[in-house]
Write a structure and sequence with these properties.
By secondary structure, the protein is mainly alpha-helical. Helices cover about 60% and strands about 0% of the residues.
């Protein structure tokens, strides 16, 4: 995978810096965050340039929202990310057989439905960590990134693996 070594080194640096309790730690972490935000901006500008080039084809995800069954499934997944979805349940909710639905979703989105759900949950978790006082070591006890009760906050259900 291109860039994997650089990503691994950056993650090691970030992990090492968060683990140490030394003078200047906050300044270093702030600069690392600035770097991440700058890289995020560069990525957005690169995607914008790619999408606005002559004869550009947009990625499949925006188009997937327009596909009746796939778009509805994406809306369901995004509306209830903490739910323990199955492909069979999603297929039934959008009126397709499991096999046909899974194939349509994967073709339109570029990944299977539950892989998309996992990626969406990671986006929500990253937002929660960025926008609240929650940390990986001390997650928000009662709220998910969507503002709904998290599975671990519900006394009647065990956390998902």
């Amino acid at each position: 995978m291109p860039g994997r070594e650089g990503s691994t080194a950056a993650l090691r640096l970030l992990a090492a810096e968060t683990a140490r309790q030394e003078p200047g730690q906050e300044a270093v972490l702030n600069r690392l965050l600035d770097l991440v935000l700058m890289l995020d901006l560069v990525l957005v500008l690169a995607v914008r340039a790619w999408c606005t080039r002559p004869n550009a084809e947009l990625p499949s995800r925006p188009a997937a929202l327009g596909a009746p069954a796939v778009g509805e499934a994406i809306r369901l997944l995004h509306a209830e990310p903490v739910r323990r979805w199955t492909v069979a349940e999603l297929a039934a909710r959008v009126g397709r057989s499991r096999t046909v639905f899974a194939a349509q979703f994967t073709r339109a989105v570029g990944e299977p439905p539950l892989a998309h759900l996992t990626a969406w949950r990671m986006v929500l978790a990253a937002d929660l960590l960025r926008d609240t006082e929650a940390t990986v070591a001390r997650p928000s006890p009662a709220r998910s990134a969507t503002g709904t009760r998290s599975p671990s906050a519900r006394p009647s259900s065990a956390p998902a693996a």
